[in-house]
Amino acid sequence: MRVLFAVLLFVPAILLAEVPSVYTRYGSMHGVPAELLYAVAVTEAAKPGEDHPWPWTANIAGESHYYKNRMELYTALLKLVEKERFLFDVGIMQINWHWNAHLFDGDLWYATDPYANVNAGAKFLSDLKRKSGSFNTAVALYHVGSMNTPDRKRRALEYCRQVQSNLPGVGDAHHE
Prior knowledge:
Blueprint: H1 2-8, H2 13-16, H3 21-30, H4 34-45, E1 57-60, E2 63-66, H5 70-82, E3 88-90, E4 95-96, H6 97-100, H7 108-111, H8 114-132, H9 135-144, H10 150-165
Antiparallel strand pairs: 1-2, 1-3, 3-4
């Protein structure tokens, strides 16, 4: 039942006519606009052809994986950790485990909780905004880490365009 409830929190915003409340809660807690937080989640964790994020998502070696439930996601990632492979993104906000496990106190099970993951994503975006001075740069850095090469700058710009297109009411996926 709890899994069903967690998944229902992340149904498409178009069906709710607003951003799901979890994004509003953690966005306001960390000073991040809920619409931006939701757009990042859609960009990071939407299954192909869908316009809402899937909470049981991982990116491993540049390839997205969508699991049926939290336990499947956790089990797959735990196998990587046991092999000392830490370069993967976890959950609905696709938090990189190698660089940001501290956002979950190093607890992989906690990182697979959609609420904890949205909270960590909001905190991370807020920290990046504080350091960079703008949400535009924060969103770019969320994806590429730094913009110290032409390729990273190009990827950051493309990512920002994707996030912008996923803002509720802006992107084609959010129009009837």
